[in-house]
Design goal:
By secondary structure, the protein is mainly alpha-helical. The chain has helices spanning 2-18, 27-49, 55-76. The radius of gyration is 16 Å and the shape is flat.
Length: 89
């Protein structure tokens, strides 16, 4: 449990470092940190903290599923459609 807390704290630190340049050079760091925090937190709730068959586990599992789906779009949104296109920031 403490390892999860330390991992989330590290990801939060990386997220905070990336905020000033979140729409520029550090966009990938920002997006990866955000997705890691959300997926990691709900993964822990789904498979470790909640009891099997409980309503809490079902809800955490649904949220985990949707954060995993949206995480793909967070990361995929960083790559421009035209390889010669540069993001202005």
């Amino acid at each position: 449990m403490r390892l999860v807390l330390l991992a989330l704290m590290l990801a939060s630190l990386l997220l905070a470092i990336a905020i000033p340049e979140a729409f520029g050079e550090r966009a990938l760091l920002f997006a990866l940190s955000y997705v890691a925090i959300q997926v990691g937190r709900h993964f822990f709730l789904t498979f470790v903290a909640a009891k099997r068959g409980s309503l809490e586990r079902q809800r955490a599992g649904r949220i985990l599923f949707w954060f995993m789906i949206s995480g793909v779009f967070w990361i995929a949104g960083l790559w421009p459609t035209n390889p010669h296109e540069q993001c202005s920031g």
